[in-house]
């Protein structure tokens, strides 16, 4: 009996990560959208950017926007994002408006097929009907691309969709966003975007064993796809508590903040989504996020390093840092604004999970280039140069110097990360 319960829990846990499979059937045409309403179409185009639809539905290098086929990593295998161009046989051209609305806000596709919540309907449910229809109007204007995608390639029993009925009953509460009367219009606009189309919590909120958000740790960071989506609460040490509203807007618009650069998964989000949003909407999101409480929201927190400076691992890390890191990030960890990220007081450096730091040191990375900041600075990989003990030492040193405090990184952490990165395709 215990094994059966464990299997069921594992199955349900998968469902958060699996991609929504869209299988068109029947010649039912969309209706209720005025194809000459260019204002609606343009608004839909903007909203599709806010929702970052391209992140999943456009295969890089394919030349076909939103035609699907992009691999979606799950802990149980790889799936492929579906085609959402208006092709009537392999895309959504034959979908009715009601079916599209239900897919976005209720998690059901054609013929009542239950979608997996990697299609973030658990967030999109907050989006207004008018905004959903505007997105549909925009998608209708795309060139139809014939691109059959076999999205669901998971082995049994993880491909059983009917289990989503139970998951939805337990964890999904459909309903449009309701503004708060005690908050400003700007705050409410930011909440509508961040909680709805922006679906920030899908990446930045940790998940429990059932694959649903840990609501007690909202927006406090989550590991996925070889990175760690950082804490974006008002936490002063690990979150954005030390950032001003304008600094958040600049980062989301340009990808280059005063002390940090957009890399990894966030680089893609900035490049395809936030850098194309209006300053007013970015400011609204910043206002909302700054109002989300973190664990270290005050100024009187204990900043004692988790690892003392006289420990052998810190001494070794200091030596490695001086040889390999100080040339760019400076001896005091302050870096160079808009070029080499500062490490002193860095929220990324002090995250509870060091996955992103391990990724950057072992594999290197390149920051996002935007119209506002076209220079995409790069960090070379050091995995070939430093052994596991050296990587562990230098990261532990960085995470506990210049006022930083975070748990030590072990050589075993580095070994596991090396293996995991080799297994990944990107």
Describe the structure in your own words.
With 426 residues, this protein is mostly helical. It folds into three domains: 16-151, Cytochrome Bc1 Complex, Chain D, domain 2 (Orthogonal Bundle); 185-290, Cytochrome Bc1 Complex, Chain D, domain 2, CATH 1.10.760; 312-423, Cytochrome Bc1 Complex, Chain D, domain 2 (Orthogonal Bundle). The chain has helices spanning 2-14, 38-50, 54-57, 97-105, 121-124, 129-140, 163-171, 185-195, 200-204, 245-254, 264-272, 279-290, 312-324, 326-329, 355-363, 388-398, 411-423; strands at residues 71-74, 77-80, 222-224, 227-229, 365-366, 378-379. Strands 1-2 form a two-stranded antiparallel sheet. Strands 3-4 form a two-stranded antiparallel ribbon. It is globular and about 70 Å long. The model is unreliable at 1-31 (pLDDT under 50).
Main features:
6 strands, Cytochrome Bc1 Complex, Chain D, domain 2, mainly alpha, 17 helices, disordered N terminus, 3 domains, two-stranded antiparallel ribbon, 4% strand, two-stranded antiparallel sheet, 426 residues
Order of strands in the sheet with the most strands? 1-2
CATH topology of the largest domain: Cytochrome Bc1 Complex, Chain D, domain 2
What characterizes the major β-sheet?
Answer: 2 strands, antiparallel
Average pLDDT reading: 87
Tally of domains: 3
CATH class of the largest domain: Mainly Alpha
- Architecture (CATH level 2) name of the largest domain: Orthogonal Bundle
The portion of residues assigned to helices is 25-40%
Shape estimate: globular
> Could you tell me the radius of gyration in angstroms?
22 Å
Unreliable stretches covering 5 or more consecutive residues:
1-31
Q: From the helix content, strand content and strand pairing, which structural class follows?
A: mainly alpha
Percentage of residues in strands: under 5%
Number of strands: 6
Could you state the order of secondary-structure elements as H and E? HHHEEHHHHHHEEHHHHHHEEHH
Oligomer: single chain
Number of helices: 17
The N- and C-terminal alpha carbons lie at a distance of: 39 Å
